[in-house]
Amino acid sequence: MLRRQFVILSAAAAASAGACSAKPATPADAPDGPPGGRPNPSALYSWTNAHIPASPKIGWAVRSLQDGGVAGQNPTRSYLMQSVFKLWVAACLLDKVDQGEMKLDDPMTVTRVDLGYPYQPIAEKVGEGGYHTTLLDLIRYIVILSDNPSAEILLKHAGGPAAVTAWLKSKGIQGIRIDGGERALHAQAAEIDAAEGAHQAELVDKFVGATLDGSTPNSSTPGAAVDALAKLHKGELLSPASTKLLISIMGETATGETQLKAGLEPGWRIAHKTGNGGHANHTTRTLGLNDIGLLTAPDGQVFAVAIFIAGADEPKDVQDGWMADLARGVIADWKKHRADSAAASD
């Protein structure tokens, strides 16, 4: 049963929560490293063992906000976040609003100089004189549509990559690091696309952190991601108003329809942020495919969920399916716990 498993793994969750510097103990049921056989102590593991490959290229974690425990595969390994980092930029800026350093209606301008990305939804609004808008509008753009020009602008207003990482650490979150923005990520991707053969494979390995040694830039561990999501939901990152605002915006996310969201059943809600790096030119290897969010059950129970995929060769629809199956596993275990609770009360 997932609730029992959460309790069993709660010690590892506490160690990875970011308040302690010690390396978390790794439960046998949440392999940290090249995973071997995985037991099936719960409906969650039973489902994920059957549908999600045991591979260092896939890391996931699920945290129950009811008891605080964490379950997962490779929960302390680092994976490239791709656009997931934009969520933490948004949160950092909303904290500046809470501290009185900025306002939601602060003027912002997106110019044609800020453009130049393959993906930039905001471009249609940028005329010769630029697009004049507000801080809140750009926050919505980077979370809901994952807009790249807006992310670069907001990252600067947040104080740069190091400032956002420092802010996360100040909130007790370890395991998430931001070293650059979209310009840097796209420059690396362009270098990979221009390369060929063994050199390209070497660059892909370096880009996705195939060694998974914790040195991957712009990265997060699954455990750190669910810890941060839990802190967000509990109001430990932002004021009540900003917490409600950000989670509401996450609920409007328009990307990732075939990922975690695809595994939900009627009555379930999701507030999330995706990150998709596409694949290396002339190869099927993904440069990063991620989805993190808060899943809310029909009875109000909330689960922080994160899944990161790096360097996998399978088609995108297969990788999307792994994400959907993680959500299905959470639902399967929630149902089992409810059934067990009902049986126990009879």
**The CATH class of the domain at 2-84 and 210-345:** Alpha Beta
Gyration radius from CA atoms, angstroms: 20 Å
Mean pLDDT: 84
Strands of the biggest beta sheet: in what spatial order?
A: 2-1-10-9-8
What name is given to the CATH topology of the domain at 2-84 and 210-345? Beta-lactamase
Provide the CATH superfamily of the domain at 2-84 and 210-345.
DD-peptidase/beta-lactamase superfamily
Percentage beta strand: 5-15%
- Alpha-beta classification: alpha+beta
Q: Tally of extended strands?
A: 10
Termini gap: 19 Å
CATH architecture group name of the domain at 2-84 and 210-345:
3-Layer(aba) Sandwich
Q: Helix count, per DSSP? A: 11
SSE string, helices as H and strands as E: HHEEEHEEHHHEHHEHHEEEH
Share of helix, binned: 40-55%
- Give start-end ranges of low-pLDDT stretches: 1-41
Can you tell me the overall shape?
Answer: globular
Main sheet record: 5 strands, antiparallel
Summarize the structure in words.
- By secondary structure, the chain is of the alpha+beta class.
- It has a domain of 219 residues: Beta-lactamase (3-Layer(aba) Sandwich).
- It contains 11 helices and 10 strands.
- A hairpin with a 5-residue loop joins strand 1 and strand 2.
- Helix 2 packs antiparallel against helix 11 and helix 7 packs antiparallel against helix 8.
Which terms summarize this structure?
single chain, 346 residues, alpha+beta, three-stranded antiparallel beta sheet, 11 helices, 42% helix, 14% strand
How is the topology of this model organized?
Blueprint: H1 2-15, H2 43-51, E1 58-64, E2 70-73, E3 79-80, H3 85-98, E4 107-110, E5 131-134, H4 135-144, H5 148-157, H6 161-170, E6 176-177, H7 182-194, H8 197-208, E7 219-220, H9 222-234, H10 240-250, E8 269-276, E9 289-296, E10 302-309, H11 316-345
Antiparallel strand pairs: 1-2, 1-10, 3-7, 4-5, 6-7, 8-9, 9-10
